[in-house]
């Protein structure tokens, strides 16, 4: 089977977020879950995507971390469809169907960008103000005081919330880039907190960045990912969180910068659109190939 190592959400090698991509030969079913987990662990990237070809315009993609399968992974989806495009298995200017555990998703492929639907957006509980919020920020190495206040939106208090566009994360606001830079999680405690709240991890963000973009950092030690350089599902959830508050507007394309602390700056585009009267979240970017080869499984 052919595999690739792809840097997603970037146009430069060693930028963005790397993922493994394995394309199954036509007509072949997925290996066992155990084999796919071990393959992801051997490749040592946060996620590895396994692509089963269902038809000329339909694919089934499953996503594995070195520890377990997850329902959806944004950067591995970008990497997967970029790889299919590079291999000549799909063409630019068309829309493809990606069957995932998070549902059937549309993938719009162009020569220089790939825009994908996220799972249906959903906001779950707010992390209660007081001791629960203090505990969250303390685990992340911060003081919780005034983290949810923004000069640009003085009438809106940003509170940590559980949000999903395929995977549930805690959206955690911080007041500026300096606070974002200071984050230094207690990973053991964060793993336990993630289990307690039933989330993949924490997506910290700030609206007050010097370049005018949203900046974010993502942590998911429960799935053996201490920090991730670009996270499509989490930034899709962030877009919906901000849309629900009236900060992000329908149809506007927002840019999130992630991965700077890791030396792998990524640019993730997010957009909220209405389709059949329902909000849909789209996340986009492009990718480059670092390596290809054959994998004997």
UniProtKB/TrEMBL annotation:
Domain of life of the organism encoding this protein: Bacteria
Transmembrane segments: none
SUPFAM superfamilies with a match to the protein in the record: Diaminopimelate epimerase-like
Active site (record annotation): 47
Record's keyword annotation contains Isomerase: yes
Alphabetized Pfam families for the sequence: PhzC-PhzF
CC annotations in GO: cytoplasm
A molecular-function term among this protein's GO annotations: isomerase activity
Keywords: Isomerase
Coiled coil (residue ranges): none
Keyword set includes Isomerase: yes
InterPro entries xref list: Phenazine_PhzF-like (IPR003719)
Cross-referenced Gene3D superfamilies: Diaminopimelate Epimerase, Chain A, domain 1
Name of the protein: PhzF family phenazine biosynthesis isomerase
Organism name: Aminipila terrae
